[in-house]
Every structure is written in structure tokens, then in C-alpha cells.
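in:
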């Protein structure tokens, strides 16, 4: 699914109006109907609804929503914020239509703000995605008052005051909704941790904007939903055998950190690889053999650390990093690997820390190597960022400079390509914020690389399946009780 910027969204609306053809007021009606369908599925109609409208098209959406809810016998009232004498044409049209159903109230100062009961649902239709400067004056006061209420709050398209595709200032007044209902496509702002309280539980409703325009729109931002991920999955052939699905090699583990190697190995096997060899220090031999009997073990001559490379001629893909440690001998082994590796490569955990401490090695990374840092690891690799928009730009520059793929882990993990594309993930939950889940991801992606998925598709699909397994595990165990092994147990598609 594509993510478009504000100007493209305006153009998408205009293109749909011209080429469907449909009038702008009828397109607004379509959007309002879609919002109301979502609302009616979410809340019973015994709860009163109070809609707070600006005087632009987002306010026009709010007026149309009020009229439709009134027609469905909801207890609904509208409050128009009189922050400007001007209003959009479609706002005026919907205001005229509404007057046949109910009379809106007008808020001229914050003293006019109504007293609301605790059961009331509030709808934010103050400002839309075209916001160009922070809300001020009466609008800012209304935003602050709504945020102070205990009531459920639903934002129409985007929370008022939140920029769709750039960073807000720290003091900007922004609605803090419980739900955001976006039209047709998600906004970039929805996917960044810094905006979490301004987005909350977000949903996209289809308002039948032009599919042709969306298909041809040029963007570097994408959202990996279920349909996107399923299109990447290659079915297994009836007459295939273990050689069909590749031989993965994991170089992992050190004394006291063999659990990371075990988790990565189990995830690799559970993700469909034909054969797996784990290269581990001597102290890890028995641990791997007993915990993961499906894997072969290559034993390093060093007892506690990786000090040498295994035989790699038969390797279809190589993963390195989980539980690795940063001993000097291990650094030397990683450097040798980067000089000689021929198979697709994924680098994680301590292998990333070695790269950040030995930056000359970054230039030796083979093209399309997959790096899987969490935010702190990424900061050590690429430098400090001022905010999460800036961090994505730094990620794009880093990926381009070193010709690598970055899986920047977190909520909505961002998969960044060297051509500047960023693919945000739709799966996963806060229960996965626990030790070992990153090692699981390394195993999954290594497995997909060994099965000859392209590095780009392996990264996108691996991140998606990792999050999906985490969601299944959370359904079974709850988020607080979830551990990395639960994610492995729930892998499969």
C-alpha cells in the first residue's frame, strides 16, 4: 500500500473528482458515509455524539457525519469553532444541509465550550491533513480542552494539529485521540513513534479514490499490509526436497549468550529453510545439539567466542550476530567474512556493534546486505537524529551510501532500501519488546534468503511474518507474558 504526501492527496482528490467524475461535495459525502459505517461498528447508538468542526473541508466532513448520524437516530450535536469568518464552499453546503436536521452551536470563545457527560463520544473535525502551521488562538484552546476530557475521542482523517508528513514542534497543540479514521490511505505521521499519542488506534476506510492515480503515483513510502505480504509468498512445490529450500548458515553465540543462537536457529528452521548449520564456539556445541536437533553444528576452535569461519561453500545465505560478542578474534572473523562472502548476508546484534566500532568495515559490506538494528544500534551506526523523520532520512542516506538494506526495528519496523524506498510494517505489538525477538527476526530473514527470496522481499516478508507471529503469540499469551520463544512457536503461513 502506498503512502502519499499532502500534495499528492490533494491531487488524488482532484483527479478522482475530474475523472470519475464526481462533485467534491459528493466525494465528501462518500467519505462521511465511510466514517459513519466505522463509527457505528465501533460504538452502540445509545451513546451521545458531539462533533467539533472547523470551517474547512475537515469541518465539512464533520457536518456531513452529523447529518448522517442524525438520520440514523443518534443523539448528535455539532459545535462549529468560530476562529475565522471564512469557510470552505463544501463546509457551507453541508452546513445548509445540516440545518434541516439539527441546528449547530457556535463556539466564539473557550467559555462557550459545552459541558459533556462521561458517556459522550467526541469527534474531532477541526483541521485536516492540509495543515501548514500550528493551531493557534481559539482552535488551540479547543484542542487543549478536548484533550483534557476523559471522553472517547475520534479524529476524522488525522488528528487536528498533527502534520501529515513532517515533524511538529514540541509545543504544538495537537488532538490526542483514542481512534483515528483515515480516508483511503494511511499518513506517514501514523507510523512514527513520536506521534503515537496523536494517532492511537488508527483505521483506514475506503472512499473509492482513483486506483489509477494511486497506482501511478510516485512515492518512496509504502505500508506492508496483509495483501502485500501474501503476494510475496512463494508456494512450496509438491516434488521439492530439502535441497530446494537452501542451506542457511548462522554464525552466532558466545559464552553466556548461546540463547540468542538457539532462538535464531529455531526461527530459521521454522521459517522453511531446507538445511541449517550453526557455527558456534565450543562451549555452545551441546546447547545447540540438544535444543535444536534439526540443525547441524560447526564448532569453532575457540571455547568461548567465534574466532574463525565455518565452511561456507554450500551456504545459500549467512546470518551473523546474535549473541556473538565483540572479542577481537570475533572482529577478525567478521572482517574475513566480509572479504570473502559470496552468499546473501544478514548482519545483526553484536555484528552491528562491531561495524559501528570498526567503521572501515562498513565499506566492505556486500551490496544488498541486510542490517537489522534497533534504534540505539542504528544511532551508533549512522549518528544522532533530531526526530524520527530525520532518522528515516539518515537511514535512506546510509542505505544509499553503503548499498545495504536496513530493517530499523520497532513498532512499524521500517525496511529501508538503497534506492530510498521505505516499507513500513503493519504487524507486531508491544509484547515483542523483550529480549530475543530480534534474534528470531534474524533467523527468519536468513531462512528466506536461503530459499532464494530477493534481499528486498526477504526483508519485507521476514519483518511482516515476525510481527504476525508476535500478534498470534500475544493473542494466546497476552502481551505482558510474551517471550521470544512464543513468537517462534507461532511462525507459519
Amino acid at each position: 500500500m502506498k503512502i502519499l504526501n499532502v500534495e499528492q492527496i490533494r491531487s488524488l482528490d482532484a483527479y478522482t473528482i475530474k475523472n470519475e467524475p464526481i462533485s467534491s461535495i459528493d466525494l465528501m459525502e462518500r467519505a462521511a458515509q465511510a466514517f459513519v459505517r466505522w463509527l457505528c461498528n465501533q460504538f452502540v447508538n445509545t451513546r451521545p455524539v458531539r462533533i467539533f468542526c472547523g470551517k474547512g473541508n475537515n469541518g465539512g466532513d464533520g457536518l456531513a457525519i452529523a447529518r448522517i448520524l442524525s438520520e440514523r437516530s443518534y443523539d448528535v450535536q455539532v459545535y462549529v469553532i468560530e476562529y475565522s469568518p471564512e469557510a470552505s464552499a463544501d463546509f457551507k453546503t453541508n452546513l445548509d444541509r445540516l440545518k434541516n436536521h439539527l441546528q449547530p452551536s457556535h463556539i466564539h470563545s473557550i467559555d462557550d465550550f459545552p459541558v459533556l457527560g462521561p458517556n459522550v463520544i467526541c469527534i474531532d473535525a477541526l483541521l485536516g491533513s492540509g495543515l501548514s502551521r500550528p493551531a493557534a488562538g481559539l482552535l488551540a484552546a479547543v484542542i487543549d480542552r478536548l484533550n483534557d476530557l476523559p471522553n472517547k475521542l475520534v479524529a476524522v482523517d488525522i488528528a487536528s494539529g498533527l502534520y501529515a508528513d513532517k515533524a511538529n514542534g514540541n509545543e504544538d497543540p495537537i488532538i490526542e485521540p483514542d481512534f483515528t479514521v483515515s480516508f483511503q490511505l494511511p499518513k506517514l505521521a501514523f507510523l512514527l513513534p513520536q506521534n503515537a499519542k496523536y494517532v492511537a488506534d488508527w483505521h483506514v476506510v475506503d472512499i473509492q479514490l482513483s486506483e489509477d492515480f494511486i497506482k501511478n503515483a510516485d512515492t518512496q513510502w509504502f505500508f506492508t499490509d496483509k495483501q502485500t505480504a501474501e503476494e510475496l509468498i512463494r508456494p512450496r512445490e509438491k516434488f521439492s526436497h530439502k535441497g530446494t529450500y537452501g542451506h542457511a548458515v548462522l554464525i552466532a553465540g558466545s559464552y553466556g549468550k548461546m540463547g540468542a543462537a538457539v532462538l535464531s536457529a529455531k526461527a530459521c528452521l521454522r521459517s522453511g529453510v531446507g538445511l541449517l548449520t550453526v557455527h558456534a564456539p565450543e562451549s555452545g556445541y551441546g546447547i545447540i545439539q540438544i535444543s535444536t536437533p534439526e540443525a547441524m553444528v560447526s564448532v569453532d576452535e575457540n571455547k568461548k567466542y567465534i574466532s574463525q569461519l565455518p565452511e561456507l561453500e554450500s551456504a545459500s545465505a549467512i546470518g551473523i550476530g546474535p549473541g556473538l560478542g565483540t572479542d577481537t578474534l570475533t572482529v577478525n572473523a567478521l572482517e574475513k567474512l566480509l572479504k570473502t562472502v559470496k552468499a546473501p548476508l544478514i548482519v545483526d546484534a553484536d555484528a552491528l556493534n562491531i561495524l559501528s566500532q570498526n567503521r572501515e568495515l562498513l565499506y566492505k559490506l556486500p551490496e544488498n546486505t541486510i542490517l537489522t538494528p534497533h534504534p540505539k544500534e542504528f544511532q551508533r551506526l549512522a549518528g544522532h537524529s533530531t526526530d524520527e523523520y530525520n532518522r528515516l532520512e539518515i537511514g535512506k542516506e546510509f542505505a544509499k551510501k553503503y548499498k545495504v538494506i536496513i530493517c530499523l526495528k520497532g513498532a512499524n519496523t521500517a525496511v529501508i532500501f538503497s534506492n530510498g524506498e521505505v516499507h513500513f510494517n503493519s504487524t507486531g505489538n508491544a509484547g515483542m519488546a523483550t529480549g530475543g525477538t530480534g534474534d528470531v527476526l534474524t533467523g527468519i530473514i536468513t531462512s528466506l534468503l536461503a530459499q532464494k527470496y530477493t534481499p528486498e522481499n526477504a526483508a519485507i516478508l521476514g519483518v511482516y511474518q515476525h510481527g504476525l507471529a508476535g500478534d498470534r503469540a500475544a493473542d494466546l499469551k497476552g502481551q505482558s507474558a510474551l517471550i521470544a520463544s512464543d513468537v517462534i512457536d507461532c511462525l507459519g503461513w
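note: The mean pLDDT is 97.
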